[in-house]
Amino acid sequence: MSNLTAAVTDGVVQQTTSSTSTKSTRGTSELGKDAFLQLLVTQMQYQDPLNPQADTEFISQLATFSSLEQMQNLNKTFTSAQAFSLIGQTVVVSKSTDSTDSTDSKNSSATVQGKVDYVTVSGGTTYLSIDGTLYSTDKLQTVIDSNYIAQQQAPTVTETKLAYDHDDAKDVEVQISLGEEEGEASSFAVLVNGSLIDPAKMSFDTETEKLTIKKEAFSGLDAGTYKIVFLFDDQLETTISDKVSVTITGTKPVSDNGDTETA
């Protein structure tokens, strides 16, 4: 309460100035269920006893409070149910840190990608476990479909136009990647002109990722251009048929019995 007394001199009230400090408080724009209940109790406590509110008004407010609580509980349950469905899925979460270290501060906005090992609920908050570290669901940024990851990590073949001359037959090479991590293949097959190339007529260097197709694989083909098809055994069973072709020229060799050789 402000000071209501002042000095009087010769019948005149003297004006004085005083410094007062104003303390501002900052609240939240959201009304939680606890605040709602406290507001209702305060309203009941300080109502005019000569003109009290009708019972129907309190019942209506209590019903509103009950609906608010049920909605909040439903929201928590729904969030938890969604989180449990993420087990085994690959997700991206923001990497938070409470450290004041300058290095950690720079990395505070970084993200972490990994599979959700398990989901746990503690103190009303739902957490995702990724590589042994817990992240609250409000840190979740992206959920990645497993097929999308497999496609990104699937085997690839470098686009190549091969040339093979019957009159100067030589082995040919193709650059191949078996893929990475979840999308990696353990083996593959190669077709030309609709027929499988005998594995004995091929060799693959895993370090350089170069496939060598021996000249014998083409000796039975007539002159022309053929597509070479690659079949991988990765989880998507990747088939690549539009990256490599071979153009064959020259005269197809003749076998010992006088017939031309066939592939």
UniProtKB/TrEMBL annotation:
InterPro entries: FlgD, Ig-like_fold, PLAT/LH2_dom. Keywords: Bacterial flagellum biogenesis, Cell projection, Cilium, Flagellum. It holds the Pfam family FlgD. One of its GO terms (biological process) is bacterial-type flagellum organization. Residues 16-28 have a biased composition (Low complexity). Residues 224-263 form the PLAT domain. Residues 1-28 are annotated as: Disordered. Belongs to the FlgD family. Required for flagellar hook formation. May act as a scaffolding protein. This is Basal-body rod modification protein FlgD. It comes from Anaeromicropila populeti. The lineage of its organism: Bacteria, Bacillati, Bacillota, Clostridia, Lachnospirales.
